[in-house]
Fold:
Amino acid sequence: MTEPVAEALARALAGLVEGEVRALDEITLLIPGERIVEALELAKAQGFVLLADLTAVDRHPEEPRFEVVYLLTSIEPPARVRLKVRVVSPEEAVPTAVPVFAGANWLEREVYDMFGIRFAEHPDLKRILMPDDWEGYPLRKDFPLVEEPVQFFGHVPKVPSEIIPKTPRPS
Amino acid sequence: MAAQGPGVAVTRPDASRPLGMTMSRAGSPHQATDADADALQRSILTTTVERLLGWARSNSIWPVQFGLACCAIEMISTAQSRFDIARFGSELFRASPRQADLMIVSGRVSQKMAPVIKHIYEQMLDPKWVIAMGDCASCAGVFNNYALVQGVDKLIPVDVYVAGCPPRPEALLYGFTKLQELIAAGPPARRPR
Amino acid sequence: MNELTRETLVLNMGPHHPSTHGVLRLIVELEGELVLGTEPVIGYLHTGFEKEMETRTYHQNIVFPPRIEYLATMIEEHAYVLAVEKLLGIRPPARAEVIRIMMAELSRIASHLVWLGTSAVDVNVSSLLMYCFNDRERILDILEMVSGQRMMHGYMRIGGLQWDLPDGFEQAVRAVIDDMPGRLEEYERLLGDNLIWRKRTEGIAVLNADDALRYGCTGPVLRGSGVGYDVRRAFPYGGYDEYEFEVPLGRAGDAYDRYLVRMEEMRQSCRIIRQALERLEPGPVLVDDRKVALPPRRELVRSMEAVIHQFKLVSEGIRPPVGEVYSAVESPRGEKGYYIVSDGSNRPSRVRVRSASFNNLQALPVMVFRNQVADIVVAIASIDIVLGDVDR
Structure:
């Protein structure tokens, strides 16, 4: 059961939304990339004044591969809504949310740093957590964890992430 | 026994008289042996100055304020009134590396921080020591990944490793006293084996 | 006359700096003593938590959260465990919830004591650091009594707690909680009307409510500016809706207001702990669902099913349904949220740590604009950042 103000936002954005997911008391709206700024402005006008989080998910091997996730919070009355933008290739830039929420500045830099997704017209898109000359985008699924094997004598230990191997996904 | 080669007849070092004068079998400094070095150490004058320096250095180690992550909080706790590190001589944690003897690397060393640590270590004046406090500084601890240097001993020489995540203040103090013993024993104790 | 030129000075503070509360680098542009611009450079403590948590099972991942925000360790564990429980759709037993709230509030007081001590030492009231850490040691003793570890506890489990409280817990907690208001009053007498403290913090590092919301600030930074958003009130979790407590608000959004907000929060935490002690009823501390929580050891002797469940949980781990969840708690710094995406396997596909300090630190340039250089230190102290939280 999601909050009425979140429902109101879903209705207000109905023209923009490509898809909707409701699970676990949370509402997720799928927005096409070109219209995300419009959606954010509408949400802000409807009372979702806090951009709690801006992150990305690498859904490899599913397509489209990346998703940029915006989490908006309304303070009075309290409600949460999630907006998602599907990104097929990271070179195609997502419009930046900085004009709407100034806090998106560092959050988008982090998404660029970790996933390589560019944001069009971002004031200062450069790496934020990794060193400036780092190559590669760490949180992508094809970037390895880079585990250093530990030297033991007479025994080849498993690297820590292989101690409990990953079970196959349910099909 | 007959004297062999040039030199004076030797008397074997008498274990019951550790402060006796001993003469080396060697004819020149190039022929000096380990036994000669030990014997030299046991003679009164050199040992006393070394021991004095060792005592002074080990009892007034001033660490540089170098807290990185969670271990830094335990390091601060060690410096506070319950686990008082000041009673061991570290009255002050110096902010400037030029005024400090000890670098307690307390916390995980990330890729971005590695050149900074090297820089600060190089700015410290000799003699200087390093305690790798915690699992992350010793061997990157729980984090075997791209973002961390796997142990600070890949960057700087470490004298004492203190295990724990984070090590209790008592553990850090134990490592600290081990370092004090190391310092008091003088430079030969740190000679590579 | 020759024309006088004005140049600004670019100064580098950190990453190794006694007052930046960790490895934070600031590139400050100064005109004389006046700060014209600040650029925080972060990433010096980036540990790759999010990637690391993608390579471990949900249970193995409990190890990581306390190392992210290492001052409020129980609250971090609470945040992660609540997110996974929400994904699974389970709720721990009532006793576990009460104990979790007690541990979280004790962690909150401990974290605020560190903030108070280090802020005071930044303004050169050095003795307060000793007193605050002394009080913190008493709280850490309780946390150690309960979990075995002073800091990285690993006490909370998905579905409850590792084990029940030890004997003597209630006396120990009451001893600390009954003392705490008196100690807080001492600290307030030292700082509250102190001319030096007030001159250093009043009107300094002002952040108005609009800016705070624009930058996504939460916690005492947002409440000091007058916006009443506390996750415990707005989106109650873990049983918080049954407790009476107030959420202190500031007005001016300066460092002094944030100080007042945090001092009052410590008092309210004591109040919550007292209520929790009243609510403590005997009962189990781990949920009964054998697909999620390990069976008690004595059952392993009797039941083959228990052995199989134990084997499955240890060798494979839990496998939540496909989906995603966002669950947040109120950490001493603000909203600490976990956004977990599950693909149905025993490892999370994505764990996003919404850290409070990352967003709060973005507001620093706005806070110190046209303040003096010495106020940068006070501003950083009043935001109360934890670099592990910022860099993850």
Observations:
- Chain A touches chain B through twelve residues (CB under 8 Å).
- Chain A has a mean pLDDT of 86.
- The domain at 4-146 of chain A is CATH 3.30.460.80 (Beta Polymerase; domain 2).
- The first strand of chain A starts at residue 19 and ends at 23.
